[in-house]
Amino acid sequence: ALATTGSAMQHFGLCIDDVYRLLAGLLHLGNITFKRESGTDSDRVACIEPTSSAALRRAEELLGVRRLEAALLAHSVQAGGGRSSSVHKVPHSQEVAALSRDAVSKRIYGRIFNWLISKVNEAVCVPSELSEGDSLKDGSESVGRVVGLLDVFGFENFDTNSLEQLLINLANEKLQCFFLDTIFRYEQELYAKEEIEWVVVEPPDNGPIVSAIEDKPYGLLPLLEEQCRLGDRGSDIALCEQLNAKNRLCA
């Protein structure tokens, strides 16, 4: 699969070595861990774990950056304005340093993804003097033909599922509902209009699943909100009892 991906990227004129180098740099960046500095006055200040020194050096080398350690361990704050302004370095705690590492990784990965899509779209555009679209570098016009990707969240089920995972799965169910309605219903209506022979496809209906989660008054989310409004009187047991009694899909 990796060889196939590399071959396809080369077909579009992409330098796969640069892409792989950046991705490898992100993997090393993710391997950097932090600990609290020892000392009574700095126990909330983070530093790089000694075991992560090699990962730090490799990340800097592959990503083409310097002073990565300093960027992960502190941020700058400007106080005042004009000539009287001053810049202070605020050290990060262990938790904030880890969040900074993750934020940098996500940002770089997002930029790589967008760059790849733009390069693919440039490669599949067909130059035409008669078509309407954005001008290419040589001044000619391009047909508005692009590759579109729908990057949805993954369906996941863990031993312990948080509210965040529930909302992610709900978003997936709604995207799936939209996809099925758009692809199957629209396309089959178009086939019927143009009198094209086809085998009728009945897509699965996940509407009841969405309703069981978000519909008022007995969906999971409305019942959860009701328990939250009760404050100390609300409980997990009461939520489960109401779901089993009033929500037939959860019973």
Largest sheet: 2 strands, antiparallel
Shape: flat
Helix content: 40-55%
Number of helices: 9
Residue windows where pLDDT falls under 50 for at least 5 positions: 129-134
User: Mean pLDDT, rounded to whole units?
Assistant: 83
Strand content: 5-15%
Helix/strand order: HHEEHHEEHHHHH
**Mind telling me the C-alpha Rg?**
26 Å
Strand order of the largest sheet: 1-2
Structural class: mainly alpha
Q: Please tally the β strands and state the result.
A: 4
Termini separation comes to 43 Å
Report on the architecture of this protein.
This protein is mainly α. The strands form 2 sheets. The protein has a two-stranded antiparallel ribbon. It has a two-stranded antiparallel sheet with strand order 3-4.
